[in-house]
Write a structure and sequence with these properties.
This protein is of the alpha/beta class. It is built from ten helices and eight strands. Helix 1 links the parallel strand 1 and strand 2. It has one domain. The chain is globular and about 55 Å long. It starts with a strand and ends in an 18-residue tail after the last strand. Strands 5-2-1-6-7-8 form a six-stranded mixed beta sheet. Strands 3-4 form a two-stranded antiparallel sheet.
């Protein structure tokens, strides 16, 4: 069995889904620490008439100390829901496939999720279906395994019966690959590259939220996501996409 692991990011960029193409199951790490600074778990960027369009889901941080991602609560105050939806409609009013996804987004935004993970998970499941991914989405909290770093990934693979772990090369730099291999888990690397596709509003901008691709390309996003897919066991080329950091690719 082949497993990948990612943080449950908000409407991630296309490279996030490359590991899912190579895996039988993708574990969403909701039991790790929520980053204190800016993070792809609660924000992402699209494209508007005047440049980048940042969407940030406000969450409660003050007085909460260190939080696990699964415990982070959404701040329901203010007009951010209306602002997000109005911004998307204004930026993508000329996108040919906006209507395929707008009703869903309006529904999930107004559903009243109290916590960030269920909100992000519902959007991820919609994207999963839209691009035809067959891998299972699994929450770390449902597996019942805790820990950190390589130890956590080793435990997750053991709990799921996995003998192969898929990781982006840049993220692999922070893991003890030898420890995984000693545990009988082979490591494979996926090296996503920016996917070029038709966009609105001027020059192409790489590695936006995959929602941009879905709005402008519709069903063709399935084929685009699979273009130039690379999986290897030797590390391959280092991913040069935006968003690779200790917070992980978005």
């Amino acid at each position: 069995m082949i497993v990948a692991a990612q943080r449950p990011n908000f409407a991630p960029y296309p490279g996030f889904f490359r590991a899912a193409l190579a895996a039988d199951a993708v574990v969403l790490l909701d039991g790790v620490q929520f980053p204190r600074g800016t993070t792809w778990v609660s924000r992402n960027r699209l494209k508007g008439r005047d440049g980048e369009l940042w969407l940030t889901v406000p969450v409660w941080k003050r007085g909460r100390g260190l939080q696990l991602i699964r415990d982070v609560e959404i701040c329901r105050e203010g007009r951010w829901i209306r602002k997000h939806l109005e911004s998307l409609k204004a930026a993508y009013c000329h996108a040919p496939y906006l209507d395929l996804h707008l009703a869903f987004l309006e529904t999930v935004y107004h559903r009243g999720h109290d916590r960030l993970v269920p909100f992000n998970l519902e959007i991820l499941r919609h994207i999963w279906a839209s691009v035809g991914l067959s891998s299972r989405l699994v929450l770390q909290s449902d597996v019942g395994v805790d820990g950190a770093g390589t130890e956590l990934l080793t435990r997750l693979c053991g709990a799921l019966g996995a003998d192969v772990f898929v990781v982006q090369k840049a993220a692999g730099n922070y893991l003890d690959i030898a420890a995984l291999e000693r545990a009988g888990i082979a490591v494979r690397y996926v090296n996503p590259r920016p996917i070029v596709y038709p966009q609105l509003w001027g020059p192409f901008r790489p590695n936006l939220s995959i929602l941009d691709m879905l709005f402008t390309c519709g069903p063709a996003a399935r084929r685009l996501l699979r273009m130039d897919q690379e999986v290897s066991g030797d590390g391959g080329a280092v991913d040069h996409a935006q968003g690779v950091s200790r917070d992980g690719p978005h």
